[in-house]
Amino acid sequence: MTTSLRFRAAIVSVALFLAFIGIWHLATRGTASVATMSPEYAKLMGATATEGKSAMPGPSEVGAKLWEHLKRPFYDNGPNDKGLGIQLGYSIARVGLGYLLAVMVAIPLGFLIGMSPLISKALDPFIQVLKPISPLAWMPLALYTIKDSGISAIFVIFICSVWPMLLNTAFGVASVRKEWINVARTLEVGTLRRAFTVILPAAAPTILTGMRISIGIAWLVIVAAEMLVGGTGIGYFVWNEWNNLSITNVIIAILLIGIVGMLLDQVLARFTRMVTFPE
Amino acid sequence: MEKGPHPNPLPAIRLRPKAGFGGQKGGARGLTASVEAARMSSEKFISIEGIAKRYPGADGGKIAVFENLWLSMVRGEFVCVIGHSGCGKTTVLNILAGLDEPSDGTVIVDGQAIEGTSLDRAVIFQSHALLPWRTVLGNVAYAVTSKWRNWDRARVKAHAQSFIDLVGLTGAEHKRPSELSGGMKQRVGIARALSITPKIMLMDEPFSALDALTRGTLQDEVRRICLETGQTAFMITHDVDEAIYLADRIFLMTNGPGAVLAEIVENPLPKDRGRFDLHRHPLYYAVRNHVVDFLVSRSKSFAAEVPAHDPRNVPVVRIGRPELVIASVSEAMHEESKQTSWPGQTRPSTSS
Q: Which fold has domain A58-275?
């Protein structure tokens, strides 16, 4: 029953995809209203004017360009012409670095907040004010103080991914079942051992959920951050291709951003499943 | 009664007397004698001395769940506490376990005032409180490594395994709690508590969430283990029959707030009682009725009826003994409450 449901869902997915491609193709094909003009002028104006072709690239053009990119993902022809693999690599490295820093700060701090009602109450106003700030609002301050655009982007990733992890860790730690804590207490388990053998495994699913939310936000923010700082990265690539008026490349970049985001989410989902325990 | 006043020995002797492993040696009968001797010489193994628990009230005042509570237990004794919800039974147990602190008074165990929790006092939780990410063996081994930090893996495993075998879970070592039935989970809880060879077992309604059949089997197991190991046990229960089956003495608590330990009922049933013919014992219904009467009516009115109740000198009720004291209050006061609710018939006789 389950396999047949999955099979049927797959058929519907493929059908929807084909319908989307078909509509896209129909919407962007030439309207065949050819304007009469001198051949030189027509050459200057391009297919959009001469054949009534839509300015929006069709699926076949995007597909061909995508294939070209996939064949050579790592070429480097100078600052404004790098392979998509290199650009994505830069973005993933920035996200990874900022995210790792956020994990290193948020999880210990979240533990502290979750275990100590005093610290929780004391830090609460700061967290409440800092949390809703758009990560990009930090950018000028980061650029001014750090004076390096690459590191500033990493800082922005750090600041945006720290909050969901921090809050989820604190919540997960604070809501560990009292009875499990009591088991550790009656067994005279020390604070450190209790933190690692009872609280961490009990809070792990909640912590991982926070980490999963964070990686999603970090990947959302990196595109915007790279548009601002420029130089390298998939966000920069999008903006650069917009300046080149290459809508085909922009569409390809959008597609790849989506796929990489999905993969990052899947990795964290797998980790979450590993630490989740049935009750 | 055609069988005579005391059908003894009971056919269902469920004891398997063998050398205990908790340091306590000797079979059940030897133990009974030692319990008796210990009580005679008033050697208190556990002594709760004037504890109180107060919570801040709504109008700034303090609400006392109980005040000035005194009780004591001797080594190897099984005590059940019965009372309505809110009388502070669980609070007493938590204080005894060290999980909660009394607002006043002290608890002395084995000659020392307790401070916090201890591996000498094992708790069996009502909700079994197993760590769901650990297997059965992992849960028991966690307790074992907590007590013996420097044991190697093989030794911990062997020790944990022996207690899993003891509670009859052989073969389920590698299951996780979510794969176990309620009764099996509670068995793991019992194995975990026993594995640290505690001096006292504290049980907070351990079987209340189980179905009647499983409850019966687990009562048998707990009774067998306690007798074999000479365990001192303190159990909270709502189940009168459970208390009569398991306890040497039954502590009756009045309703809270301001709960007091009203009476101590000594269980007149023989130590080698079996669960299946318990109710045929000539004194069974006398004990049962006394406890039920207390729960139904006297637990509410006790404070008003016995204003001179001395918490340090709680009346001991010995049913069926020469110095029979069924009720420490005058019979006249209870004539009304003893009216049967089935007019035209008399109350069934409880003695033969």
A: MetI-like fold (1.10.3720)
